[in-house]
C-alpha cells in the first residue's frame, strides 16, 4: 500500500448532527452516499486511495433517521472498483427506500446489467478520473457506449470526473441522448484554472440537453470551507435546471467521517429558500430520476 493512503477519521455520532432548519418533506432523498463493510467480506481494489472508512449500512440508517431522510442512493465507491457486491447487498437489505449507481467493466454482459437492475441499480457511474488523460474523443465514445448499453433499462449515467474534463466535454453534452448527472456541482475548481464562464457554459449545455447537476460535495469544491461563495453557483444551478437538480450529502465524507451531514443539508435552507423548489430537489426530482 502507498504511503499516500488517506486515513479516514471515525464516524460522527448521529445524535450530534445539526438539524437543517426547515421542515423535511416526506420522501426526502439523499442522492449520493457510499456504503462500506468489512474487507474480509468485500475485498477492496489493489490500490485504493484510502483505508476502509466507517460507513456501514447501519451507520447510514442512523444518519438518515436523524435527519429525516426517507430515501437514499448508494453510489459505488472507487474503493471497490467494479465489484458491486457491497452495494448490491446494501440495496437488498435497505429495500424500496434505496437505489444504486454501479460501476462495471467495459465487457459487462447484458445479463449482468439486467441483474443489477432487478436489484435496484438505476445508473452507471463513469469514473473519468481514471480516464482523464485520454483524448476527448475516446471519452465521448466511452460515454455514448455506456448510454447505449443501458438504454433498454432506462438508466442514466453519472460523471465522476475532474472539472477540467467536464469543461472539455461541454461541447458534446447537448448531443447525449440520455439523462446524465454531473456530480459535485460540476467539480470546477478554481485551482485547476476553471472559471465562472466555464461553469455557465456547463449550465447552458445541461439545460439545452438532458443534463442534471447534483448539489453535493461542497467541501470538495470550496476546499477552504467557505461555502458562502458557492451560493451564487448553487442558485444558478437551481435557476437553470429547476426540474433536474438533486441533493446528495457525499456521506461518509471520506476522509472526514466526523463532518456534520446536517450542516450540509442546512445549506439548502440558505441556497434554496423557496420551499416548493427545495421539495423538488429533495423529493420530486430524485423520485423521477431513480424511479422510487
Question: Could you describe the 3D structure shown?
Answer:
It contains ten helices and eight strands. The mean pLDDT is 94. The longest helix has 16 residues, at 275-290. The protein has helices at residues 57-66, 85-94, 110-118, 136-150, 163-173, 196-208, 218-221, 231-240, 261-271, 275-290; strands at 29-33, 71-75, 98-102, 121-127, 156-160, 180-182, 211-215, 245-247. Strands 1-2-3-4-5-6-7-8 form an eight-stranded parallel sheet. Helices cover 37% and strands 13% of the residues. The protein has a single domain (14-290), classed as Alpha-Beta Barrel (TIM Barrel), CATH 3.20.20.140. By secondary structure, the chain is an alpha/beta fold. α5 (163-173) links the parallel β5 (156-160) and β6.
Give a brief rundown of this model.
By secondary structure, this protein is α/β, with parallel strands linked by helices. Helix content is 37%, strand content 13%.
Amino acid at each position: 500500500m502507498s504511503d499516500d493512503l488517506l486515513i479516514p477519521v471515525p464516524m460522527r455520532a448521529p445524535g450530534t448532527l445539526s438539524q437543517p432548519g426547515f421542515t423535511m418533506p416526506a420522501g426526502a432523498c439523499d442522492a449520493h452516499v457510499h456504503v462500506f463493510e468489512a474487507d474480509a467480506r468485500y475485498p477492496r481494489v489493489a490500490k485504493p486511495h484510502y483505508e476502509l472508512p466507517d460507513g456501514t449500512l447501519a451507520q447510514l440508517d442512523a444518519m438518515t433517521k436523524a435527519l429525516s431522510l426517507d430515501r437514499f442512493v448508494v453510489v459505488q465507491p472507487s474503493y471497490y472498483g467494479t465489484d458491486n457486491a457491497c452495494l448490491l447487498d446494501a440495496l437488498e437489505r435497505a429495500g424500496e427506500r434505496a437505489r444504486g449507481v454501479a460501476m462495471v467493466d467495459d465487457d459487462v454482459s447484458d445479463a449482468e446489467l439486467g441483474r443489477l437492475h432487478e436489484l435496484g441499480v438505476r445508473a452507471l457511474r463513469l469514473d473519468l478520473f481514471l480516464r482523464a488523460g485520454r483524448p476527448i474523443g475516446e471519452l465521448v465514445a466511452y460515454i455514448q457506449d455506456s448510454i447505449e448499453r443501458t438504454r433498454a433499462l432506462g438508466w442514466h449515467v453519472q460523471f465522476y470526473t475532474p472539472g477540467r474534463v467536464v469543461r472539455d466535454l461541454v461541447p458534446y453534452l447537448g448531443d447525449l441522448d440520455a439523462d446524465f448527472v454531473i456530480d459535485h456541482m460540476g467539480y470546477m475548481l478554481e485551482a485547476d484554472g476553471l472559471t465562472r464562464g466555464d461553469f455557465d457554459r456547463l449550465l447552458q449545455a445541461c439545460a439545452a440537453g438532458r443534463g442534471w447537476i447534483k448539489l453535493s460535495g461542497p467541501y470538495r469544491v470550496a476546499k477552504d470551507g467557505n461555502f458562502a461563495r458557492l451560493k451564487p453557483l448553487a442558485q444558478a444551478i437551481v435557476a437553470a435546471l429547476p426540474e433536474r437538480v438533486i441533493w446528495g450529502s457525499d456521506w461518509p465524507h471520506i476522509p472526514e467521517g466526523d463532518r456534520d451531514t446536517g450542516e450540509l443539508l442546512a445549506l439548502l435552507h440558505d441556497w434554496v429558500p423557496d420551499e416548493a423548489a427545495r421539495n423538488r430537489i429533495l423529493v420530486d426530482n430524485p423520485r423521477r430520476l431513480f424511479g422510487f
